[in-house]
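Okay, is this right?
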Amino acid sequence: MFPVVMPTYARADVAFEKGEGAYLWAEDGRRFLDFGSGVAVTALGHCHPRLVAALTAQAGRVWHTSNMYRIPGQERVAAKLVEHSFADSVFFCNSGAEAMECCLKIARKYHDESGRPERYRVICANGAFHGRTLATIAAGGQEKHLKGFAPVMDGFDHVPYGNLNALRDAIGAETAAILVEPVQGEGGIVRGDPDYLRRLRATADEFGLLLIFDEVQTGIGRTGRLFAYQHLDVAPDVMAVAKGLGGGFPVGACLATEAAARCLTPGSHGSTFGGNPLAMAAAEAVLDTVTEPGFLDRVNHVAASLRTGLETLQARHPAVIEEVRGQGLMLGLKCGAVENIALMRRLFDAGLLTVAAGDNVVRLLPPLIIGETETTQALDILAGVLADLDGARS
């Protein structure tokens, strides 16, 4: 019988019934240490008291009114995002893909409003991932995501990630924007060279282009700053965020400067559910927590300790793990003599949840609230699994 839920996922045969902090409990009673965070989503872990209280309180008041009316929560969350970023204005939606769609529409509308309607193309990077809509799979450009969905949406040119000369050569009369992930997540936890990312800003300014950052995965403290661009001392014109913003509740946002956002006028873009009161209650609780003094300092301290432990394990088992990649609590293990899926299964059996990525990488994306207890446990599980794998090769 064909499954009643469309078979678009290769799901693990486990169902979770309870979560607390960095842990999940399956229906059969097994406990797992969650170093996947629902793909970098549960930034505050499971059932964080502040988040539960905010959602519960809002659920007893009003869930949805639509964007035909003012939503005070949007105004508060937007003001906080503006306060803590480069942006002047925010559009709320439900997912990272929708946030990226808003970014791409701004790129076209900005130039159209400026009297340059011929500028519609966006330069993207090889290995990128920007979502699953027809536009965002075209922006990502990966064959595995495009297969079966021809014709590919026009308007995207791809160059090697980190190659500024190739990017400059790709700029033409129809180019509207440059789109990049500061750290490629799905592509294998590939961190952009800081000098390269800074030079993208100068290049965009030189040619009159918009610079768009996809911070759907890197944003909301994942790399140790609220946004990854803040490590660079430069800022984009437009930016997509989602995942950690709602701490598990679906919410996305497109942030932009006034100059870029001015082109979006009533009727030019919209979302029925985007920024509803429940989503805003969750996002406000997450932002208030992550921006508290000392929170990100603690994230950086834990991330440094975890990375040191991972690099020690990599040095012991260089044939199995070739490299430790990433930034903050967005880390990747580049596998060598083992498939990443095989390593993930062994870790799963030992009680550690991880996430696959391209280039044979296993992603470690723990909640931002983890401490020494959780990092020690994760490293112990990894040490045991890696020793077994190395022993099996001998």
Notes: The longest helix spans residues 295-316. The chain has two domains: 16-34+293-393, 50-290. The first strand starts at residue 16 and ends at 20.
